[in-house]
Recover the amino acids of this structure.
C-alpha cells in the first residue's frame, strides 16, 4: 500500500475505535446504575452491618448530628449587610402578599418583610408571644385577639383589628383570585354567605375596638390552634380602594409591598432580587442588620455562590449536593427533620366524583391486606436511605412524621424489613407459585402482575424504582413499572387521581406528601378527601379522624392517644406505607449569628454578622 | 422592494395564525394544567376547582382559543396564572432583557466571526487557519449549556470578573448611570458565552465562501488589472463573500432564541427563554402561547430581514 492510503486506513480505523469507545461509554453508564442497584441489595441483606458502617467514615450522615440553630462565633459588628440566596431555577413570581402568593419562592421573599400576627411554638401551636395574642372562650368557638400596641405597618400606620378582618374579607370575597379560601374560612360564621355574595359582611368577624378582633367559628377543633386561623393582616388603608380582583396585580403587591416585619422592602427587580432595609420601628425591638439583599440563585451554582461568600445563607440546599460539599469551610450546616414523608400507596377503591367520596372496592388487586403487608416487609428503607441519600433519609415507621414530635409515635416500629416473613405471609395467604415461573400467582391461581407508578425527576428516581421492584421480586412478586417507564409529574398525579379520574391501570404508586402544621391527616386520608389517592376508607378510620379534631382533643394527651391509635390502624391496614423520612439541610456562612431554621423561630430582627465581608471557602 | 415586503408580511399573517393554533393545541395536549401542580392538602380542592371554572380551563379548546385570540387581537394576551399579572406586562419585562442579550450576542458574534473568517479564508491552510478551524470544530462539538456553565464557573466564580446571576445588581435606581452599567456588566458574560458558540457557523461559512470566491474568474481579472492585494480582498472578495452571511442573519436570530433558553436558565437571567421553559413546566398556557408566538414572529421577521439585506448587498438579486 502507498503511504497515503495507509494514513487513510489509519484514519478510518481511528474513527471506528472512537465509535467503539463511545459505545463502551454508554454501556458503562448503564453498568454503573446496575452497580448501584447491586450495592443497595447488598446493603439490604446484611442489615446488622449498617449501624457499624455509620460509625466509620463511610460518607453516611445522620440528622442527629445537625442542629437547627446556628452556633455563634466571635463578636457581632454593628449593622452590616446580609446576602440571602433564594435557590430556585425560576424567577420568583412577585405576588408579595400572604393572601395572594402561591409559590414557595414568593413566601421566602415575603418572610423578610412581613410576619404573622400569631407566632407558633415547636409543636406548631399558636402562642401569645407574637404581634397579637388570643383568648378562646370556654366552648372554644369564639376567639378574641388583641394586637399589641407597638405593632405598626412600615408606613407608620398602626396595625388595627380592621386590617386583620380585611384579610378575611378579601379572601372570602367572591372575586378573590388566590387559593387560600378553604375549610379554615368556611368554618367562620357567616363566611359562606359572604362568599356567595348573600351578605355584605361576615357575621362571625367583629372588630371590637381598634386593637381587638373577635372571630366566631362554627366548630371548635384543636386544628384551629395549629394553623386553622389565618394569621396575616392586610393593610386596609392601602388596599381599601383596589377591587379585590385586581389586587394581585397591583403595584401595592408587586412593587411597594408593606408589612410589619423587621425589614422594609427597598427595591425590587422583578423576578430576580429584592433589597431590604432595616425597619427602625420594629415591634420586638432594635433590628441589628442595616440591609438584607435577596437574590435568586440557580441550584446548579448554589455551591459556588456559598463558597465565594456571594450569599451568606440560602432558603434551601439540594441535599444531593451535600455529600460533596460537607467540608465547605466557610459555612455551618443547619438541619432539621422535614415536614414530609415518602410513601408507597396501594389502590383500594375509586373516587365517586358526584358524591365526592371514596368508594372502597374489595375486588381490587391490592385489596388483600396480607399482600400489602408482605410488600412492606420486603423493602429495606434504611438501605434506601443510606444508598441513595447518604443517610439523609431514613426508614419511616408511621404516617405522622417525627417533625411533629408531639404526635409522632416513636414507639411504633411500623413493619420492619424481613423478606422471610414476607414470604411466609404470602405463602399463608395463598399467594403461591403454581406455574413454576418463579413468580407468585394470586390465591385463585391467576397470574399476578402489579403495576407500579413512579415519578420521574432527579438522578435517583429510576434506580430507586428499580430497587423496589427488585426487592418485591425477591419475595416472588411480579411488579412492573407502569408502561415500563417513569411518569412525568403532571401525568403521574393525573393517573394517580388528583382530578378524581383514577387510572385503573395503576395498582401501586410511590408518592410523597409534605404535611402541614396541623397534624390532622383528614385531608389526606379522610373519606371525602380527593387527595386520599389509595381510596381507602373504613369506619374505624372515620371515627379516629373525627375524634382527633373533636372538642375533647383540645386536651393534648387525649389527642395524642387518638393519633397513636390512628398510626397503629394505618400500620395494620396499610392503605399506604411510609418509606422514608427526610432531612432538610441549610448551609449558613460562619459570619452569620442568631440564625435558625426551627419552625418556632421568629427572630429575624436579631440576625447579625461578625464581619463586613463574608469569609470564603479555603 | 416595498411591494415585496408588504407581500411577505401578508403571507406572514396566516403563518402566525396557524402557528398559534398549533401551539395552543399542543399546550392543551400536555397533561395537567396551571393548577394541577397545586397538590397540597392545605389548599381546598374546591377552591382550585372554582379557579379552574373562572379561568375557563374546563371549556373545550376551541372556545378557549377563540377567547384567547379575540383578546390577543385587541392587545390583551390574557392573564398569567402563575404570576397573577397580565401577560403583556410580564412579557414586556422579560422581552427587554432578552432583546438586549440578543443584540449583545449578535454584535459579539460578528465581531468574532468576521476577522476570524477573513483570516482563515485568506490564508487558508496556514497555521492561523488551522487554529481557527480547530476552534470552530470544538465550537460545533461543545453543547452550549455545558460551555455556559464552565464560563460561569471560570469567569464568574473563579476569577470573579463578572456577576453570576440576574440582569442587574440589586438596589439600583432604574435609569441611573450605575444601573445601565450594571445591566451591561450582567449581560456581557452570557452574551460572550453564547456568541463564542454560535459564531462558529458564521466563521465556517465565511471561510469557505472566501476560499470559493478567491478562485473565481473575476478575481483573476482584478489581479490582472493590477489591483492591489488588499483591494482585491476588501472590495472584490469580501463583498461577495458576505452574501451568505447576510442570508444567514435571519437564522442567527432563530438560533439565538434556542440559545437564550439555556443561557438564561444558567445565568439566572430573567428573559423570555427562562419564562418559556418555566411556563411550559407549570402549564401557564397563556404565557406559553404568547411567548411561542413572539418567537415565531421573531424568526419570520428574521427571514424577512435576511431577504431585504440580501437584496441591498447584492444588486443581482432582484426581488419581485
Amino acid at each position: 500500500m502507498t503511504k497515503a492510503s495507509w494514513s487513510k486506513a489509519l484514519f478510518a480505523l481511528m474513527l471506528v475505535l472512537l465509535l467503539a469507545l463511545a459505545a463502551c461509554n454508554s454501556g458503562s453508564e448503564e453498568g454503573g446504575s446496575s452497580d448501584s442497584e447491586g450495592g443497595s441489595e447488598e446493603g439490604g441483606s446484611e442489615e446488622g452491618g449498617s449501624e457499624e458502617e455509620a460509625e466509620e467514615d463511610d460518607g453516611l450522615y445522620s440528622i442527629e448530628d445537625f442542629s437547627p440553630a446556628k452556633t455563634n462565633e466571635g463578636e457581632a459588628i454593628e449593622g452590616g449587610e446580609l446576602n440571602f440566596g433564594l435557590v430556585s431555577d425560576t424567577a420568583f413570581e412577585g405576588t408579595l402578599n400572604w393572601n395572594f402568593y402561591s409559590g414557595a419562592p414568593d413566601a421566602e421573599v415575603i418572610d423578610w418583610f412581613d410576619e404573622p400576627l400569631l407566632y407558633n411554638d415547636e409543636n406548631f401551636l399558636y402562642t401569645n408571644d407574637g404581634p397579637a395574642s388570643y383568648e378562646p372562650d370556654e366552648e372554644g368557638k369564639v376567639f378574641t385577639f388583641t394586637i399589641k400596641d407597638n405593632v405598626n405597618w412600615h408606613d407608620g400606620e398602626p396595625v388595627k383589628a380592621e386590617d386583620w378582618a380585611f384579610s378575611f374579607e378579601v379572601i372570602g370575597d367572591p372575586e378573590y383570585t388566590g387559593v387560600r379560601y378553604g375549610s379554615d374560612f368556611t368554618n367562620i360564621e357567616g363566611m359562606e354567605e359572604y362568599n356567595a355574595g348573600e351578605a355584605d359582611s361576615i357575621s362571625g368577624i367583629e372588630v371590637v375596638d381598634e386593637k381587638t378582633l373577635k372571630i366566631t367559628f362554627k366548630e371548635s377543633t384543636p386544628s384551629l390552634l395549629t394553623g386553622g386561623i389565618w394569621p396575616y393582616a392586610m393593610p386596609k388603608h392601602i388596599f381599601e380602594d383596589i377591587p379585590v380582583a385586581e389586587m394581585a396585580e397591583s403595584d401595592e403587591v408587586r412593587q411597594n409591598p408593606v408589612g410589619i416585619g423587621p425589614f422594609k422592602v427597598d427595591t425590587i427587580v422583578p423576578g430576580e432580587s429584592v433589597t431590604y432595609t432595616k425597619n427602625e420601628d420594629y415591634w420586638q425591638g432594635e433590628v441589628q442588620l442595616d440591609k438584607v439583599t435577596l437574590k435568586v440563585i440557580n441550584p446548579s451554582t448554589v455551591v459556588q455562590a456559598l463558597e465565594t461568600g456571594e450569599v451568606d445563607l440560602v432558603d434551601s440546599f439540594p441535599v444531593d449536593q451535600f455529600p460533596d460539599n460537607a467540608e465547605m469551610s466557610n459555612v455551618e450546616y443547619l438541619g432539621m427533620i422535614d415536614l414530609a414523608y415518602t410513601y408507597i400507596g396501594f389502590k383500594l377503591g375509586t373516587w365517586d366524583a358526584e358524591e365526592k367520596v371514596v368508594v372502597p372496592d374489595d375486588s381490587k388487586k391490592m385489596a388483600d391486606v396480607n399482600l400489602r403487608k408482605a410488600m412492606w416487609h420486603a423493602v429495606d428503607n434504611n438501605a434506601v436511605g443510606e444508598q441513595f441519600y447518604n443517610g439523609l433519609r431514613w426508614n419511616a415507621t408511621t404516617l405522622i412524621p417525627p417533625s411533629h414530635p408531639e404526635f409522632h409515635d416513636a414507639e411504633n416500629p411500623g413493619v420492619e424489613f424481613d423478606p422471610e416473613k414476607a414470604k411466609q405471609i404470602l405463602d399463608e395467604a395463598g399467594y403461591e407459585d403454581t406455574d413454576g415461573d418463579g413468580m407468585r400467582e394470586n390465591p385463585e391461581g391467576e397470574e399476578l402482575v402489579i403495576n407500579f407508578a413512579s415519578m420521574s425527576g432527579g438522578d435517583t428516581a429510576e434506580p430507586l424504582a428499580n430497587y423496589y421492584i427488585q426487592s418485591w421480586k425477591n419475595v416472588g412478586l411480579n411488579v412492573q413499572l407502569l408502561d415500563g417507564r417513569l411518569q412525568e409529574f403532571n401525568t403521574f398525579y393525573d393517573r394517580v387521581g388528583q382530578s378524581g379520574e383514577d387510572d385503573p391501570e395503576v395498582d401501586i404508586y410511590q408518592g410523597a406528601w409534605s404535611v402541614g402544621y396541623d397534624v390532622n391527616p383528614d385531608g389526606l386520608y379522610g373519606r371525602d378527601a380527593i387527595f386520599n389517592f389509595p381510596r381507602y376508607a373504613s369506619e374505624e378510620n372515620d371515627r379516629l379522624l373525627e375524634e382527633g379534631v373533636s372538642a375533647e382533643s383540645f386536651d393534648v394527651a387525649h389527642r395524642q392517644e387518638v393519633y397513636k391509635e390512628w398510626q397503629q390502624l394505618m400500620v395494620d391496614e396499610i392503605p399506604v406505607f411510609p418509606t422514608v423520612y427526610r432531612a432538610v439541610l441549610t448551609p449558613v456562612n460562619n459570619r452569620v449569628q442568631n440564625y435558625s431554621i426551627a419552625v418556632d423561630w421568629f427572630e429575624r430582627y436579631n440576625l447579625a454578622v461578625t464581619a463586613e465581608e463574608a469569609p470564603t471557602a479555603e | 422592494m416595498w411591494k415585496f415586503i408588504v407581500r411577505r408580511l401578508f403571507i406572514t399573517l396566516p403563518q402566525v395564525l396557524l402557528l398559534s393554533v398549533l401551539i395552543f393545541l399542543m399546550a392543551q395536549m400536555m397533561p395537567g394544567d396551571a393548577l394541577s401542580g397545586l397538590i397540597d392538602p392545605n389548599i381546598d380542592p374546591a377552591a382550585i376547582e372554582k379557579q379552574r371554572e373562572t379561568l375557563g380551563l374546563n371549556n373545550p379548546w376551541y372556545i378557549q382559543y377563540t377567547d384567547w385570540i379575540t383578546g390577543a387581537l385587541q392587545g390583551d394576551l390574557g392573564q398569567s396564572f402563575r404570576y397573577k399579572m397580565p401577560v403583556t406586562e410580564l412579557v414586556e419585562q422579560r422581552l427587554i432583557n432578552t432583546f438586549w442579550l440578543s443584540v449583545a450576542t449578535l454584535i459579539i458574534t460578528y465581531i468574532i466571526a468576521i476577522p476570524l473568517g477573513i483570516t482563515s479564508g485568506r490564508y487558508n491552510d496556514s497555521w492561523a487557519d488551522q487554529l481557527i478551524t480547530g476552534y470552530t470544530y470544538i465550537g460545533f462539538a461543545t453543547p452550549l449549556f455545558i460551555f455556559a456553565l464552565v464560563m460561569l464557573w471560570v469567569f464568574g466564580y473563579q476569577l470573579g470578573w463578572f456577576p453570576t446571576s440576574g440582569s442587574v445588581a440589586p438596589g439600583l435606581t432604574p435609569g441611573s448611570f450605575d444601573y445601565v452599567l450594571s445591566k451591561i456588566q450582567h449581560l456581557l458574560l452570557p452574551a460572550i458565552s453564547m456568541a463564542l458558540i454560535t459564531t462558529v457557523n458564521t466563521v465556517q461559512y465565511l471561510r469557505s465562501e472566501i476560499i470559493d470566491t478567491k478562485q473565481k474568474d473575476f478575481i483573476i481579472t482584478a489581479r490582472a488589472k493590477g489591483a492591489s492585494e488588499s483591494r482585491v480582498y476588501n472590495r472584490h472578495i469580501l463583498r461577495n463573500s458576505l452574501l451568505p452571511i447576510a442570508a444567514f442573519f435571519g437564522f442567527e436570530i432563530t438560533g439565538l432564541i434556542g440559545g437564550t433558553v439555556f443561557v438564561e436558565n444558567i445565568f439566572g437571567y430573567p428573559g423570555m427563554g427562562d419564562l418559556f421553559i418555566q411556563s411550559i413546566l407549570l402549564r401557564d398556557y397563556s404565557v406559553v402561547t404568547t411567548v411561542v408566538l413572539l418567537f415565531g414572529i421573531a424568526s419570520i421577521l428574521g427571514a424577512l430581514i435576511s431577504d431585504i439585506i440580501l437584496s441591498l448587498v447584492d444588486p443581482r438579486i432582484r426581488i419581485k
Remarks:
- The CA atoms of residues 339 and 515 of chain A lie 5 Å apart.
- Chain A touches chain B through 58 residues (CB under 8 Å).
- The two ends of chain A are 59 Å apart (CA to CA).
